[in-house]
Specification:
The protein is mostly helical. The chain is 65% helix and 0% strand. The radius of gyration is 18 Å and the shape is rod-shaped.
Length: 52
């Protein structure tokens, strides 16, 4: 997957690295802004029995 992505990006190496860094940052922002909050009610981390 990474090889395919690297071969299909335009420009020299510096431009490719910048594009990949921006894309990785965008994926991280989307995960923390929408994906993780949407999944958190379905995760068992809040179902603790200690202290009740």
């Amino acid at each position: 997957m990474y090889g395919w992505l690297w071969r299909h990006l335009p420009g020299p190496v510096v431009v490719r690295v910048l594009i990949l860094a921006v894309a990785a940052f965008a994926v991280l922002v989307v995960c923390f802004a929408w994906v993780f909050p949407a999944l958190s009610p379905h995760m068992p981390f809040n179902d603790t029995t200690v202290g009740t």
